[in-house]
Amino acid sequence: MLQPAQQYTGSxxxxxxxxxxxxxxxxxxxxxxxxxxxxxxxxxxxxDNRAIVWALLAADIGPxxxxxxxxxxxxxxxxxxxxxxxHVDVGFKQGVRWMKxxxxxxxxxxxxxxxxxxxxxxxxxxxx
Length: 128
Fold this sequence. Notes:
Layout: H1 20-24, E1 28-33, E2 36-47, E3 50-57, H2 65-77, E4 83-89, H3 93-101, E5 105-110, E6 120-126
Parallel strand pairs: 3-4
Antiparallel strand pairs: 1-2, 2-3, 4-6, 5-6
């Protein structure tokens, strides 16, 4: 089960999508614990040097978060994009905190960005 702040994604994300092509390019990851998937994420390429990072995490991810954070940080450092963006719900404090821990900066407040009309924040991590 997804964490509460990501429950809405069930209506807009195809969770059965085959991520093999992205994974084969090193652009997607899966986290398993006791043979159960507790997180997926990756990069959606937009154009040269720009991608959007995304992650869907289980509600009980807590004890595994430090290891996931280290892995995602390494994943981002080695990503072949100069600019990586992320979208985070305005009220999702843990998501905002994680983006900052990963070196992202908030660039914009996006009104009515989600399909249900909710507002989101645009974060970006840009290599020099």
